[in-house]
Amino acid sequence: MKPVQFTMDDLFAPSPEPVRDPLESHIMTYINEGISSAREICEKLIARQGMDPARYSTGKPVLFPYVCRCLDSLASSGQVKFQGAVEGTEDRTYFKA
Q: Name one Pfam family in it (predicted).
């Protein structure tokens, strides 16, 4: 196996664009369409992208915490804003920043 050689230029070259998580891309598509409910985004992901339709006994998609974690990450990076929890439900809403 031949050793890999780096130059000083390699060390200071601009980094490539970060690879975007496919789930994040789908979520941003729905946010851009005006869908703000994390629960509704889950339902769209299941229906349109073929995500796992498994549900908890409450009926909430198992996908829900993953979608919320992704939305929270997008909120941390300033791409979306967390609007709040929907009172009387177990849903959360976000909107495009």
A: DUF3895
Architecture of domain 21-96: Orthogonal Bundle (1.10)
Query: SS3 of 41, please?
Result: helix
* Residue 84, SS3 per DSSP: strand
User: Would you state the structure tokens that stand for residue 58, as one six-digit string?
Assistant: 């409450």
Could you read off the pLDDT of 36-73 as tens digits, one per residue? 999 999 999 999 999 999 999 999 999 999 999 999 99
Determine the Cα–Cα distance for residues 28 and 35; give it in Å rounded to an integer.
9
User: Which among 53, 32, 33, 34 has a CA at the least distance from the CA of 42?
Assistant: 53
Residue 13, SS3 per DSSP = coil
